[in-house]
Amino acid sequence: MASNAPQWQVDIPGLFQVAMNVGAHSLKQLALSGVDAYTIGCMLIVSELVPACPDFRKRLNATREKQRRERRWIFKAVEIATATTFLSDYFLKTRAGENILALVTAIAPLISQDACSLVLNHLFDQAAVPADHTPSLSQFSMLRDGLIDFTRQAGFREIVLNHHDFLARIFGIDLDPYEAIPSVECLSQVIKLCHKIVSTEELYFAT
């Protein structure tokens, strides 16, 4: 019987092609960031569990284009490659990558480095990804650091805080928005439930 479960396999040939395409300088910047190419591949294998809506994906691409314009103005030349731009550019090449970038953008600016790493680790645990295909906590942390500037520019944190302030005013609640952020375990469950809701809606509308 065929299984509908995701296949946990890292695309090694694909990663090799990426290495050939980006050039030595970008790979050097990636190495300096501490993020391993294998970690990128591992992140992509769970991308279908965190689907991003088209509007959010457009927002991510618009954010990256804004970064490019700013850097062209600053340097008056071609963009200087950094680990941050390499990571965001690579993830934006495919829908799978956009899903991962959307996930990191949604959680990284709102929680601490350690909490972000634990949420990502919990996601892999809940998906039953084998240990040899699960990045270490230090790799999750370095990935978050490599993308944090991009995620902040995307403005998702401000949207969340504005919605919190709006709801707090409606219900007359005086609460620090950061105190309302769920625990690591709860965030992991929320991500899992969101995937279930999206999957159920797709199944419903397809019938």
Q: How would you portray this structure in words?
A:
With 207 residues, this protein is mainly alpha-helical. The chain is built from ten helices and no strands. The chain has helices spanning 12-22, 24-33, 37-44, 54-75, 83-91, 95-107, 113-126, 137-153, 156-171, 184-206. The longest helix has 23 residues, at 184-206. It is globular and about 55 Å long. Mean pLDDT is 77; it is low at 1-5 and 76-81.
Write the SSE topology.
Blueprint lengths: L11 H11 L1 H10 L3 H8 L9 H22 L7 H9 L3 H13 L5 H14 L10 H17 L2 H16 L12 H23 L1
Helix pairs in contact: 2-5, 5-8, 6-8, 7-8, 7-10
Q: What's this model, at a glance?
A:
With 207 residues, the protein is mainly alpha-helical.
Give the H and E element order.
HHHHHHHHHH
If helices are DSSP runs of H or I spanning 4 or more residues, what is the number of helices? 10
Largest sheet properties? none
Strand portion: under 5%
The number of E-state strands comes to 0
Q: How helical, in percent, are the residues? A: 55-70%
Give me the secondary-structure category.
mainly alpha
Distance between the termini: 23 Å
Radius of gyration: 18 Å
Q: What is the average of the pLDDT values?
A: 77
User: Uncertain regions: pLDDT < 50 for 5+ in a row?
Assistant: 1-5, 76-81
Q: How would you describe the shape?
A: globular
